[in-house]
Amino acid sequence: MRALLFGTYDTSMHPRVATLAEGLREAGAEVAECNAPLGLDTAARVDMLARPWRAVGLITRLASRWTALARAARRQPRPDVVVVGYLGHFDVHLARLLFRRIPIVLDHLVGASSTGRDRRLDGGPRQAVLRLIDAAALRAADVIVVDTEEHLTALPERHRPRAVVVPVGAPAAWQAAARQGTRPDGPLRVVFYGLYTPLQGTPVIGAALGKITKAPVEITMIGNGQDLAETRSAAAGNAAVSWTDWVPAADLPTLVAAHDVCLGIFGTGPKALRVVPNKVFQGAAAGCAIVTSDTPPQRRALGDAALLVPPGDAEALAAALLRLADDRAELARLRAAARRLAAGQYAPRQIVAPLLARLDPTAL
Fold it and tell me: How many structural domains compose the chain?
């Protein structure tokens, strides 16, 4: 099978596409890329879509990238399937135009309208525009990839027969970064990284950190975004918290693996209850114990290989961190269980199996 990854995606911001590519190659597919990164993160894209006076900038930038993609596509051997990378709500239409009579797969992890609501853009006309963008993208795809059963159920009913669930997983670099063993003493080292969106519930993390100011716990908070100020304010009394704007994507696996615990998400909104985020799979692959919210998709994906707390519950999160700081045997068990789970079920080769089964059952 010859697969072409196509679109304006950026793997440094959204590693999902790289994981799919890695899995397809490991499964024996010939994988090529036709990629012209748009250079805008999710927040910027949604903001431009929701504010028509800013959409001109998006259209201009998109046009230049599409010109590059069209030229590159003409130089590609004819693929058997085209996979449009995450945030490809517009790219899928170009793929449909350029690759006629070739199956088009849309990696539709999260809809534009769902992302807009999560980022508190939930008012009338703006949501209507985002819903129209979602609907057009879904119609253009032959196969729709989502990451959880909850996201499949959230699709309009007419599109569900064309959908397949492919967990997010983690690239091999995260497993390679994992360190062996757990220190018997010293402070518990905890890491969080993200964009501080409402889905991630970082103010809950901040409030939990504010409750454990005298505990033997050191916390590294990486990233920036709309809830950062509130998070920092909630954690202001804890001098053991270090704050970093971001680190290069290539350095992130090693940095995370140097910690004992990787925090997931703790938001209470509808989107937070439907996802299993990148950082959960990545942290598990890196050999960290995972502490995240007890939601149906995360409980189903992680089982007893993670410590789950109620969404939005800062008291429970604080108690979970204190428990792991005190119980190094449980910490070691969780780290080992998370790593086994990531290697056994959520490595790239494993996660692409449902997609390959849909495209070509003989490829398995």
Answer: 2
